[in-house]
Write a structure and sequence with these properties.
Mean pLDDT: 97
Largest sheet: 8 strands, antiparallel
Shape: globular
Low-confidence stretches: none
Structural class: alpha+beta
Number of strands: 22
Oligomer: single chain
Strand order of the largest sheet: 13-12-9-10-11-14-21-19
Bound molecules: ligand MV4
Number of helices: 15
Length: 444
């Protein structure tokens, strides 16, 4: 087992990882930018290293600074958290070259799943349903021919895209050529890889993702699903488990498909398989995430399994020591992301001093955050400042518990989206579970 881990991240996820390390008796190294000197993760870590100025490109994305900090402090492993370098195959490779364990899958698997076209091909070969579509296109003429076969509306997706980046919808053949050329150019400039493929636009659909935990010895367990259909501009807002629409029969089939994915890829560590599911319960592979996800606490609440500790154990080469039959999914959990933004001002990000903070509590009420009383929320980073997660035996109780917790939360001095979250939880379609990926777009 590692004796010291460097956390290459900031905010609530850095705090979460440090807490897991403390429970495991592992020393921690925090890295921070000049804007994060007063950040909670710096205080909680055993050691800390300033890695550069505020902008992420000069600090939290600065691979050389981060690797140097790990070498200088003698950290045996680096935990990348989510976002930032967590799915960067080059960084994982550079960790390997420095003899430092990257807590995540291998660079090869990160690359393979990062290439959305290769991921689709891998899933098809494994017998996992993928969205009807075609492989990467080599010309606009080929694209037009494929588009006519697939039918409209369809999506043009960038091979190097993901999480909503590099996606363009086309509603008719007349629009196709211009849309394809624009999509190619956009992907070329954003990702340095313009290659695109087509997918039939499925609608209405739910976004259902399956959490996998795999060790190095072929041990694979599926820890249930999370529904993440409530998204705004591809940013998840609310996640819940189980999904109202996933029956035990569908869950068994989806788990089976997810385990097939893990075997096909030879997956190690924590991984999430994202599906789109239509109203008939038919599901289709969308993409695979090779990182710890923001919404992991939802799964922790319904399984009682600490995902971060297991991610670290697996990276240290330990076997799971338990099997699928030992996994029990109990009750219901909901997560609301709390962002420093003003939904009434087109979600303008907010920063500044938190003048009054009261964090809700009670049985199975959890608030993962790095903010504290009088903390100054900096303007340089992602607007998410915390995650409110609740668990109860039934979805109705969990909804009431979340509403009560949102009401109890006091966060003065900066704008936040808790009232919008309350609105969504009171929406009849959300309450009934009859909601799809267009839920937020429909609200306008
Ligand atoms: C889709 C889709 C419908 N049909 N692909 C958006 C982000 C990225 N994960 C893929 N996304 C979608 N891909 C096909 N063929 C609908 C979406 C989508 C979506 C997916 C999940 C959760 C929220 C979403 C919001 C808008 C669109």
């Amino acid at each position: 087992m590692f004796s010291k881990i460097l956390i290459a991240n900031r905010g609530e996820i850095a705090v979460r990882i440090i807490r897991a390390c403390k429970e495991m008796g592992i020393l921690t190294v925090a890295v921070f930018s000049e804007a994060d000197r007063d950040a909670l993760h710096v205080s909680l870590a055993d050691e800390s290293v300033c890695i550069g100025p505020a902008p992420v490109k000069d600090s939290y994305l600065n691979m050389t600074e981060i690797l140097s900090a790990a070498v200088v402090t003698g950290a045996q492993a680096i935990h990348p958290g989510y976002g930032l370098l967590s799915e960067n195959a080059l960084f994982a490779e550079r960790c390997r070259q420095c003899g430092i364990v990257f807590i995540g899958p291998s660079p090869e698997v990160i690359s393979q799943m990062g290439d959305k076209d290769m991921a689709r091909k891998t899933m098809k070969a494994a017998g996992v349903p993928v969205v009807p579509g075609c492989d990467v296109l080599s010309s606009v003429e080929e694209g037009r021919a494929e588009a006519e076969k697939i039918g409209f509306p369809l999506l043009i997706k960038a091979r190097a895209g993901g999480g909503g980046k590099g996606i363009r919808r086309v509603d008719s053949l007349e629009e196709f050529d211009a849309a394809y050329l624009a999509a190619y150019a956009e992907a070329e400039s954003s990702f340095g890889d313009g290659a695109c493929y087509l997918e039939k636009y499925l609608f209405p659909v739910k976004h259902i993702e399956m959490q996998l935990l795999c060790d190095r010895f072929g041990g694979i367990v599926c820890l249930g699903e999370r529904e993440c259909s409530i998204q705004r501009k591809n940013q998840k807002m609310i996640e819940e488990s189980p999904s109202v629409a996933v029956t035990p029969q569908i869950r068994e089939k989806m788990m089976e498909a997810s385990v097939k994915v893990a075997k096909a890829v030879g997956y190690e560590g924590l991984g999430t398989v994202e599906f789109l599911m239509d109203q008939g319960g038919n599901f289709y592979f969308m993409e695979m995430n090779t990182r710890l996800q923001v919404e992991h606490p939802v799964t922790e609440m319904v399984t009682g399994i600490d995902l971060v500790k297991w991610q670290i154990r697996v990276a240290a080469g330990l076997p799971l020591g338990f099997e699928q039959k030992d996994v029990e999914l109990r009750g219901c959990a909901i997560e609301c992301r709390i962002n420093a933004e003003n939904p009434m001002e087109n979600f303008r990000p907010s920063c500044g001093k938190i003048t009054l903070l009261h964090i809700p509590g009670g049985p199975w009420v959890r608030f993962d955050t790095a903010v504290y009383q009088d903390y100054f929320v900096p303007p340089f980073y992602d607007s998410m400042i915390g995650k409110l997660i609740v668990h109860a035996q039934t979805r109705e109780e969990a909804l009431r518990k979340m509403q009560a917790a949102l009401c109890e939360l006091v966060l003065e001095g900066i704008d936040n989206n808790s009232e919008l979250q309350m609105d969504i939880l009171s929406d009849k379609d959300f309450i009934s579970g009859d909601y799809y990926t267009d839920f937020m777009a429909k609200r306008g």
